[in-house]
Fold these 3 entries.
Entry 1:
Amino acid sequence: MDALSPVVSEVAPRSQPHLKGNMGFLSLFFSVMAYNAPMVVVIGIIPIMVSTGAGLGTPVSFITAGLILATFAVGFTRMSKIMPKPGGFYSMITAGLGREIGLGSGLVALLGYFCVYAGTFPFGGLVLGELVHVTLNGPDLPWYVWGTIFWVASSILGFMKVELSAKVLTIFLFLELVVIVAYDFMVFVSGGANHAGVSAAPLAPAHWLDGSFPLGLLLALGMYGGFEVTVLFREEVRNPSRIIPRVTYAVIATAMVIYGLSSLAFINSIGVDQVVEAATADPTGSMTQSLQDFGGQVLSDAANVMVNTSTFAVILAAHNITARYFFNLSADGILPRKLSGVHARHGSPHIASVATSIAGLVLNVIMIFTGVAAIDFYTAMLGITSFVILGVIFVAGVAVPVYMHRHGHEHSAWSRYFFPGVSIIGLGAGLILAAVNFPLLVGGSTSLATSLMVLIAGLFVLGLVLAMVYRRTRPETYARIGRQ
């Protein structure tokens, strides 16, 4: 089968093997939105962006990033309808740019999502340990004791049917949003730090370049991760042609509103003239103090609890995403076939789920015995993910209009040229910024950044080479690449 052969029907038969599920709009929305960890972004990332990123222009950075990704979503959601195949970006890039680039991108995407899964356990262990020891006056134990709780819970839920994970993520994310909305509401109603009214100055063009707008945009783009995996759950969603596009736009819009309003609230809660200095002196402490000032100890404690549930939601969502990448690559014969097993009752990729859990555990055990600091490991893993996923989205942003053009799908000039062009320019700029600032993303070490960049590039090249080898030696495997 030609990699660029047209799709003849929007209801093409399912690939074998295939997963089973019955997620609706809300289940998919909360499952995907949870990957963004909005509470972690509000408490941990927004103060950092104000101090070292775009400064007072932080709300505009979030709005700009959201608009860039919305332009990408125009072609992305259209592609999800005309190419009804599982596999996510792995399938889309293969359809648009060929099996070689598709397989390379699929392996790199797998690395990115696995890094989120495995790399978040240390952070989870730290925040849960702090909650138990400091807030609840419990025992002071190493992070990996608490991290093991996250690992066990995510392993069990990931093995089960996807609807169970969706229900857990729905509850956790709903509670997160309640706390965030309550904080924003209290700041806006009270009139900010001086109770004189909320200032819209951060939205004014005069403040867009107060800090580093490029760095702010880079950080903001990284906070929208996850919306793209709506297509990865295609086989587990009822009526995917309708639900997937709606959820994709809903996730981007919700994240843009939450991040934009929360950053504006944070700036006003301390004061436009004082917030940068306060956030620079103590990023996390400044947000904690803001929560206490406007929501009291109750809201502050609730936020501390929600950071833990938000962290677990990230781990569970990343586990499910990683397992499905393992499943799809296995179904194509790239990874061992056994990983593509489907549980008879749960309809889940249970063997791929177990493999994901074991791989995450092994990597963390290695990290513990080599003496790598938990926060350094977490930073490096998230840095890899930020760069990798942005890169894969960029490649997909190129692949989608190429596929549309080659197969003559009818659409307006806006969706054919304008929106793809804006997304490619915006994502390309973000990718260049990520490459230039990669040492900063992974913790500041140039040697580490170089090693990790070699790993990422090497994995992409491995995919290219494997596809070329399969083309000559295993044509049946080559034909299946990208769930084709």
Note: Residues 1-14 have pLDDT under 50 and may be disordered.
Entry 2:
Amino acid sequence: MSEQRRPGTHSEPAWTSGPGATSGSGERAPGDEDLLRRVLAAEADRIEPGPGALPEIQRRIGAGDRGGARRRWRRPEWSIPRLAGGRWRGWSPLAAGAVTVATLSVAAVVVGLASTVVPTPSDRVEPPPGTVGAQRSAGATPDEVQPGPTPPDGAVAPSAGAGTGTPAPGATESTAGLPVYYLGGDPGRPRLYREFHRLWLHDGSARDRITAALRNLLDGPVGMDPDYRNPWPAGTDLREVTVDGDGIATVDLTGAARDGVDEVTTRLAVQQLVWTVTAVPGVSGLRLRLDGAPVDRLWGRVDTSGVLRRAPAMEVLAPVWLISPQHGDAVSRSFQVHVAGILPEATAQLRIQRGTRTVREQVVTLSVAGPAQGEARFRVTLPPGRYTLTTYAISLEDGSERFLDDHTVTVR
């Protein structure tokens, strides 16, 4: 943990004698209780944690770095002064122990409070050009961008129905990077992964964006990454989308009858629709219809009556997630890597391979520990070639690699 001292502070308390001693002015020196109070106040006033200290504390606690903790805490810069022989200068063992316990307790409280802050996933607006999958190829113009799976005519037309949103003056057709969610990871316990697909829009309204994203999602069994799958049956199509004034979308599907789907997959299939639809700004929930009629239980497994909302991120999103570059991207020699994860230790791994040879392996420290979704962005420079980037977590139980997410990219 890094720290900075404030100007004008001292490296040790003004008193140096034990309890019961007198100061130079003849006044009685403070006892253990007073000493403890003054030292804690002085230390709290003069220590400022450096940038990034909190994630580092969380990482070390989660990783169980006891040996490292002993090395770092044996003689910290801000420890209570000692004599040359190592004895506490004028302190009883009780007071010295109380200071240590109180200091560690404050750090634990800070870490605990920070871990309860859950940021909103950053998928509700299109990322600016050059960031997080806004374009399939870094530096490409919109005309050069290759979208994900699309209908045969190459454009996504909006379905009939009233929509919200104000069309841009004189707008005809344009493209936008829209978030589309898929299932991935362990088939027995799938999670949601997101891709940005550049799709055609007509008026840019909420209905228009939902229509484009859902038709793109339902168009094929996988995403741009073949490891990302769509559990909705082949032949499922979008009949209609409407968005009311309260920001609730009604999504009407056809051809979605399916048997033999387990409850876990069914639940994630519903959340796949919910997270894709509510990624559109101004939309907070959806009502599901099948062939024009409300459906109370999808495939007889999951309650879908009423308004459906996003489930908590830690329950449905991938524990580790390589957001960018996306699978199949062509990038420049120096490019940004964006990793997200919901990990209690806030620590992921990145491995880069060229063929079967590993050219880079590094630790990735996320911005915050679970249950929040932490993120990390950093630059990587590689010579031209074809590479596989894999993010994953190390199990604290047995050291195995878990939650692997890999993308193959071309460095130009």
Note: Residues 252 and 289 are 4 Å apart (CA to CA).
Entry 3:
Amino acid sequence: MADTITRERRSWNMSRIKGRNTGPELWLRSLLHRAGFRFRLHAKELPGKPDIVLPKYRAAIFVHGCFWHRHEGCRNATTPSTRAEFWQSKFVSNVSRDERSRAALQAAGWTVFTVWECELKSDAPGVVERLSRDIREAV
């Protein structure tokens, strides 16, 4: 199926996609704050610049969108039908970068958590409860 909008409009749409302070990220931050956690954001000195950093617990949290980070088995991890080669390369690059960041953080003694956009949408209280338990147990 061909794209229904012009190349210029598609380019403009894609340029508006944020990498930081996304809706799911803001939502999780709010829930973690209510749960009593205090954190830093996008720590530049850490590999991969985790979305949320809890220095007290040496924990880093990445909030991943299912589409961009290829959440396995998720219905939101679709692949566009046009320019399939470009998209496949992009997705492989994203997943590879995620793995390198996770490994580097773990090697530096950090506990790394990943929260998927779809998990947050379907069961936000459960996600925060699980994260709270796992973060405190990791200490």
Note: Residues 84-107 form the longest helix (24 residues).
